[in-house]
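Structural prep section.
Before we set up the soaks we want a predicted structure of the protein with beta-D-glucopyranuronic acid in place, mainly to decide which crystallisation condition to try first. Input record follows.
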Amino acid sequence: MKLSPLYPWASASRRLADLNGFWKFQFDPESSGEVEGWTKRLPAPVFLPVPSSFADFFTDKDFREYSGDFWYATEFFVPNEWQSREISLRFAAATHRAVVFVNGQEAAAHEGGFTPFVVPLGKTVKWDEPNTLTVKCNNELREDCIPIGITATLQNGKKMAKPYFDFFNYAGLLRPVTLIALPKEHITDFTVRHELSGNKALVHYNVETTGDNNVTVAVFDEDGKQVAAGEGKDGIISIDNARLWNVRDAYLYKFVFRITDGGTIIDEYSEDIGIRTVEVRGTDILLNGKPVYLKGFGKHEDSDINGRGYNPAVIKRDFELMKWTGANSFRTAHYPYSEEIYQMADREGFLVIDEVAAVGMMTSTLNFMDAANGKPTAFFQKETTTRLLKNHLAAIEELIRRDKNHASVIAWRLANEPETTDESALPYLEEVFAHARSLDAQERPCTFTSLMTATPDKCGCVQLCDVVCLNRYYGWYVKGGYEIGDAENWLRGELEGWKNKCPGKPFVFSEYGADTDGTLHKLPSVMWSQEYQIEYLDMCHRVFDSFDFIKGEQVWNFADFQTTEGIMRVDGNRKGIFTRSRQPKAAAFYLKMRWENLPCDYKANNSNK
Ligand code: BDP
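Run finished without errors. Recording the tokens verbatim:
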């Protein structure tokens, strides 16, 4: 049986039941649940909501900081009328790994906390009777899994997450769980690739199914009028005078895929698809052949109480705020986001750099802070590297399979700040890039974000990137405050170095930012004040504006977010342009002024205009 990565939409042939709500939950610090029969019943559960992160519900610090196994349990019913169907459960995200038991039997296991997996139910299911569903999750950080870190044991025997990255290790059943009933013969996946030819759009498509019956495709415009059709599992659909998907001017066609047998529809699946091309030419990033300049944010899925749990209200608010600032893009730092976020980006015309959870690719025992000191850690020479690579490649595969058809996704971010100053990074990243390139029919640009210490003379891997992405903090971690003039010179000096090293490639600032207390005003400025955040951003922008090959700016971060506690963080990372409760700091008004006045084709090369 083929497991489908498709988003669970209902249709004339597809039945869904939402399993979200309050589930039973229990920590298993001894990892003894399985031998003690928790696969059938949790002995002393509490109730908590699915989807969510568990960490911020409890008042006991041991629970917030918990690392180890934890279990969820619920019951579900499958109606008798569904007996002729193929039944499965879909977990949109179980962080970071899970084993699923149905009626006490192991049904599936999955590694990776940010991509969906489907559990076929087969003969284990009971019709019109309660089925028990238990899920053993585990949130321990390891050096051979992503995101990367270690799990330490304290002297009191408790385990503790030591991330090599700078965000709180939120975990749980973070995203919705759905019961799915499909016809036996059904569509398992589809792929589209767009080509523009005069005023025609050619959509190359491929549909995968579990059987041999005929496949048809019908395309409808936003008024519901059919504009094109195709037949067969592979084909090219031609749309005359197609309205293209554009930056902040989205247009979505409804593609209806069907398996038919004579006049009977066996299965039907629909998706809203934007038609557009994306490519890099010279130092330009082109959308539909036209240069675009990226204005926007690095983000996190992070909110009060629900942590990294699916939060549609916050998703909506974030898009409203991004639109208000005049942004046109964001990066899904540092992991694949909820699928609904890409759907909204498709509808709103946002350009997304889609990121795999390969973050922490440098040994860093002091939270992620060692990242900044430039000391070599031989990260890619560890005994764990082979296993890490395997997990990393699998995660890229799941990301691309999930997100490949989104018009909003314009590039794949394959790693964050890997230790590219060590020569062993090159063979590792070569495999990562080759794998991603082999999987994407749309041949989107691939990139990683470059760490501050990986300067032009030291980075051995930048040649792999189609767009070079820099995370730089001159004026914050280096030469901050009254030294900001020197910071500006250092930043300019580094960019001159890049210009010589990579002529003819576009560069994007994938991170730049300054921690700022949303309550602190100071004249003249001091670091952490709202005034300093603006001075810092203004300095960076002055520099960006004077280099033609800088084709985008994604400020770090959209909003304040939670991290591990430590001397560098005041209840989390405060580089937000908005507070964690999504209210503006002064810099939000400053950015709005800038971005509303920067044209979308800012700094375009004349040859591409
Ligand atoms: C970069 C990381 C990011 C951090 C940021 C910071 O990519 O996750 O949050 O620095 O220091 O190194 O704020």
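Observations: Residues 165-166, 334, 371, 416-417, 471, 511, 556, 573, 575 surround beta-D-glucopyranuronic acid (CB under 6 Å).
Flagged for discussion at group meeting.
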